[in-house]
Amino acid sequence: MLRLLGRFGSINVRKALCAAEEAGVALAHEAEWGADGPGARALTEAGFRALNPNGLVPVLLGAGAPLWESHAIMRFLAETGGAEALRGGGDARGRAATDQWLDWLGTELNPAWRPAYLARVKGAAFAAEAVAASERDWNARMALLDAALAQTGAWIAGETFTLADIALGLAAHRWRKTPISRPDLPAVADWLARLDARPAFARCAPPDLP
């Protein structure tokens, strides 16, 4: 059986768990890696570094060489489960649209939210100006997402639910649960309601975990 290493609190681990459930792929989740408390396994262990030299979760085992990077794992799980729709369907344009939004998450949205989230939720030390700038950038990227969703009227890459909705949806869940000032974004709110109605997403986006 495939094994997924990484604590549930990691948003990247939850992306993989949600993708696996949506694709119908069974996983053994080893949540002790990077967790706190009794039984936790440190990501600095030599054995873990041999699996992922970056020292980050998630890591997928059981499919040949260890696989890391959450979006690569999501794509692998979708294809393993034969869930073509999750990859954007059978045509190149649909798959490219899905990948476009997954790339945008990594290059635009994630860098925007990090200082605000780490300061407001994790208590990390950042200059007040950096946190304020992060909140502005985060809200600006979410407004862009809102405009795109208003155009599709359904899911972020078009009419079909894809991996991009999982990854961006979890990021949007983090945005709505972080104590910052947020603009009213009705298309995002409607989209999140549709996501919350999906059991796999609801399990991976609990109310108490940004």
Largest sheet: 4 strands, mixed
Strand order of the largest sheet: 2-1-3-4
Number of strands: 4
Q: Which structural class is indicated by helix and strand composition?
A: alpha+beta
C-alpha Rg (nearest Å): 17 Å
Kindly report the average pLDDT value.
Answer: 97
Shape label: globular
As residue ranges, the low-confidence spans are: none
Order of helices and strands: EHEHEEHHHHHH
Strand content: 5-15%
SS field, number of helical segments: 8
What separation lies between the terminal Cα atoms? 29 Å
Percent of residues in helices:
55-70%
Structural features:
single chain, 210 residues, alpha+beta, four-stranded mixed β-sheet, 8 helices, 4 strands, 55% helix
How would you characterize this protein structure?
It contains eight helices and four strands; from the N terminus they run E-H-E-H-E-E-H-H-H-H-H-H. It has helices at 11-23, 46-51, 70-80, 92-120, 128-152, 163-177, 186-196, 199-204; strands at residues 2-5, 27-30, 59-61, 67-68. It is globular. It is of the alpha+beta class and 210 residues long. Helix content is 55%, strand content 6%. The mean pLDDT is 97. Helix 1 links the parallel strand 1 (2-5) and strand 2. Helix 1 runs parallel beside helix 3, helix 1 (11-23) packs across helix 6 (163-177) and helix 4 (92-120) runs antiparallel to helix 5. The protein has a four-stranded mixed beta sheet, with helices on one face.
